[in-house]
Prior knowledge:
Strand content: over 45%
Structural class: mainly beta
Number of helices: 0
Radius of gyration: 24 Å
Oligomer: single chain
Largest sheet: 5 strands, antiparallel
Number of strands: 40
Distance between the termini: 12 Å
Amino acid sequence: MNRILVIALPCVVLLFLIASIFAQGYVFGPNIRVNDDPAGSSSHWAPHGGQRGVAVRGDTVYCLWRDGRSGNGIFFAKSINDGQTFLANVQIDDGFGMAIAPTLSVDDDSTIYAAWQDIRPPFSYWQVYFSKSTDGGLTFTPDVLVNDTIGDIKNHPHRRPSMAVDSSGVIYIAFDDARDGWYDIFFSKSIAGGTTFLPDVMVNDSSVANIGGRTRPGLSADNSGNVYVVWEDDRYHSWNDIYFSKSTDGGVTFLPDIAVSDTDSCNYRLDPSVNVDKRGFLHCVWYEYDTNANIFYTRSTDGGLFFSSPIMVNDSAYEPNAQGYPSMCVDDNGIVYSVWEDTRVVFSDFEIFFTLSTDTSNSAFVYPDVRVSDATNDWSWGPCIAVGDSGKVYVLWSDERNGDWDIYFATGLVSGIEEDGEQVVENNDMYLLAKPNMFRDRIKIVYGTGERLEFMELRIFDITGRLIKQLIHGCPESGVQTIEWDGRDDNG
């Protein structure tokens, strides 16, 4: 549904209705434990950064994590009631090694895809593996090796996969790789549904391959074969910068690297993630620290040729409290949602906080941050976020409230309709300000004029100021008039 601005002109009553989502209107529900072994009995770790641990399709929520209940494995759970409860946990990996650092994708047919890094005999170094489920997560296919180098090469690992799947089922995976003795970003894809993967391709410029290191990639892809990758890079400094490259041919080749962050300041920049929206805009977040640690955001509106100047995501009022390990997602309207770890509640403890941006320029995250985790005096770690069709957000993280790390989950939504409670009358025009609930698929406006009008003109605009709906109707004398709108755009 469109984010709307409603204006009635130019008669006795002027209604002014704002339906943009405001972060202070978001409320997160009770925190729910997802892992089904006894609370606090073993360590469980949610993915973060460029890796994704939660996805949603309709009322079904999909989650995965690293699980220590029987060594280190990759476990999965889903909810079929919008995250209120979760079904029994399922182990994804074959259980032959030590599986960590998972990432998740779910396509429109509800096929579930997972990738992770794993050490398994007879080898003693990390490799990237893949599995998928076509029955809603009841069973997963046997593990498939993604990277194309094999052999017992100690200290030359392949790690930290980040994955995306396009609408035709092509699977894209980026990972950091030390096959040449230093870390580079490599890429592979499957056009065979994950049964086999094509030979690996180096993403970063080969001319800097032996200078510094490149690690922790984040990957996104669109349905036109464009692949977008960001990563940490210390090629020129003793600190990390954020770099970017893209492929316009489905990952066969990658364009020259572009520095996304400011490379002149001596700040460490870590854990980037990237998302592409329906317009082709790229969105990137990371965390950065010198004396303080904060979350930063940039975007590109030209497919990655140019990135805007980075801006801070979290509230600056809470300095010098540390913020770190962000996760980000973007909905079909280009609204950016982000979560991160934050020490503002108790300086020595991390909790999970949330904000969003509906801004169409670059002065983005201006709304107060909202707390997601509801426990006190514990650590909440490694959040990841997804957004549903209606603007609901779904957050997964690791939490030690029970003594050891468990996996917790919360749903966030706008808390109903808020009105300003006042009517301002100027020249017989009345202004009414409200914030509707964006999870309803209809907008209803009820008003009374106290006198008969020949017509009322109601104009509805989106947040960019574009006219998307125009209604003209009469107003009965001293009566109450009701207008309903189903969110359709007259201009397509």
